[in-house]
Amino acid sequence: MTLGKRIKQLSYLAGWQFRALMGRRAPLQSVNFILDQCNLRCRHCSVYAIATPRIKTLAQIREELEYCHSLGSRFIDFEGGELYLWKDESVEGHTYRINDVIDLAHEVGFGSVTITTNAQLPFIGTHADQVWVSMDGVGEWHDDIRGKGTFQRLDNNIRNYGEWRKSVGGQAPPVCVNVVLNNRNYPCLDEIMEYVRSNPHIDQLSVNFHTPFSETEELFLEPEIRNALIDKLIDYKRRGYPIMNSRSGLRAMKMRDGKTICTDRYCWVTNFIFSDGSRSPKCMGYMHGVCDRCGFSMGGEMYAMQHFKPDTLLSGLKLRM
Ligand SMILES: C[S@@+](CC[C@H](N)C(=O)[O-])C[C@H]1O[C@@H](n2cnc3c(N)ncnc32)[C@H](O)[C@@H]1O
Fold this sequence. Notes:
The protein has helices at residues 3-21, 58-71, 98-108, 140-146, 150-167, 189-198, 223-238, 247-252, 284-287, 297-305, 310-320; strands spanning 29-33, 75-79, 112-117, 130-134, 175-181, 204-209, 255-256, 259-260, 270-273, 279-280. It has 321 residues and is an alpha/beta fold.
């Protein structure tokens, strides 16, 4: 990011924080689900069961981006489905792909654009500011959740991306890993930490817990196990492992009496545009009535941010600048 862009972003953030203190609740970041077509059938997800997947056109995405920007949002996360399957051929003679969506977001005025991918397809040449790769374990642990051979492809694509990044003098966005712990893969946490730390192509990881949407409740982690894992993660962080979650954000994800404290009350910082085009200030967890068992790291971070925890404010800045 250029110095000018950094200064512009920082001053917008300061203004936003000031307005938030004055009681103005406007989203700072948006999540846009641009398709629900996917190339995997993961245990934790039911997107693949949709008979006719929805795929937005670039024109629809433009309208949605302009709407989010008009609310005050300046950071956008694109989600799916699998973003590397997205294409729009509705305009004769053109095939738009994910980089066109990212360029559009920059053009509309978003300062930071992130994408989340399962890394089954190459992502070399991405125009995003940050790439999040979903990884649910190392080797067979990952394959158990996402299907045979998926870890090998992910590992290869991360390595190929890293080599390419090196070849362009590091002038390409970092790769971060998004881990979701559930009651099948949690014993793999130590292996995940070592894999991420020793992989020169991965910058950091964010750790989440399975949120029990309907049909995937069986993956929910018992609160005692989750709390013990959080203590372990805080210790890993203290020892210098590249964990993006802030210490305060992790603490806020602990469960007390079977419930989290970071409920939807704190989630107004983000707004959502779903794949059917519906617009909401609340995430899918709210719609499913599972906020009190939310496992999304952003829930903890937003709670800690609104309690002015300095470590959380700093890690938020680091993530977006
Ligand atoms: C909806 S997926 C779709 C993007 C892409 N296909 C992928 O796998 O990265 C986006 C992220 O949400 C996470 N996720 C999906 N279901 C979840 C759940 N019930 N609780 C917590 N995280 C979940 C996935 O692991 C993934 O990192």
